[in-house]
Amino acid sequence: MFSAGGARSKEFAPAAVEAGAVVVDNSSAFRMDPDVPLVIPEINPEKIAEHNGIIANPNCSTIVGIVPVWPLHKANPVKRMVVSTYQAASGAGMRAMFELESQSREILDGKEPTCEAFPYQIAFNCFSHNSALDANGYNLEEVKMVKETRKIFDCPEIAITCTCIRIPVLRAHCESINLEFADPIRPEQVRDLLSTAPGVSVLDDRENNRFPMPIDATGKDDIFVGRIRQDGSIAENRGINIWVAGDQLRKGAALNAVQIAEKLL
């Protein structure tokens, strides 16, 4: 089980494989390698058997977003996804979590916030995901979500665009996901499909305006889904909006890797 960053994985994983181990890698080092399976057990567990010694664990935002989209895609192919992420500080590590706490104290004490783990103030603020931008203006997190979703779904033609934002929450990522389907689909169909989907919990209480929040997902294995509604801007009832919340340290990282290892065994 490798989770020490891409550089360490590239350095040591081949030696582990050569020694007879199977590596489940939680970094980005091998995710887009065509010879390495990229696996979410609720979606493509059959790919585990195709490994050549290394199995890649997807990016946390990808996992949180597409676990609930997959059962919908199987029932009615998704033609286009528009994803906006609201990503917790913990996605950037423990130092980032501590920085959110310390900056909050500093600001409430009337002091200037100290920025070290993040390039900008995270307390009482939000900003574009702090990863490198490509020539088209997309950051690395957004590019990962696009490429990884296509690989995991085995659907290179699916149209995907993402905007990834860091928010002042300690734990659990949220995502707003707009889906355009090949055929008409209604919110009640979506609820029915998700109510029995593995790894998904529906929290969609319109009467009380109660939908998934980071505090619901923190420390939980499931991805929580709510705000299930028709997108009236897409013709023929082919559009659906959903809102998801998932603990990116559990299902978004550690749990998914453990599930892969369990399938291996």
Descriptive notes:
- The strands form two sheets. This protein has a seven-stranded mixed sheet. A two-stranded parallel ribbon has the order 1-2.
- Helix 7 (214-217) links the parallel strand 7 (200-202) and strand 8 (223-230).
- It folds into two domains: 6-58 and 257-264, Rossmann fold, CATH 3.40.50.720; 61-247, Dihydrodipicolinate Reductase, domain 2 (2-Layer Sandwich), CATH 3.30.360.
- It has eight helices and nine strands.
- The chain is α/β, with parallel strands linked by helices and 265 residues long.
- It has helices spanning 6-18, 60-66, 69-75, 94-108, 140-153, 187-195, 214-217, 250-264; strands at 23-25, 54-56, 78-87, 127-128, 159-166, 173-181, 200-202, 223-230, 239-246.
Structure described in brief:
The protein has 265 residues and is an alpha/beta fold. It folds into 2 domains: 6-58 and 257-264, Rossmann fold, CATH 3.40.50; 61-247, 2-Layer Sandwich (Dihydrodipicolinate Reductase, domain 2). The protein has 8 helices and 9 strands.
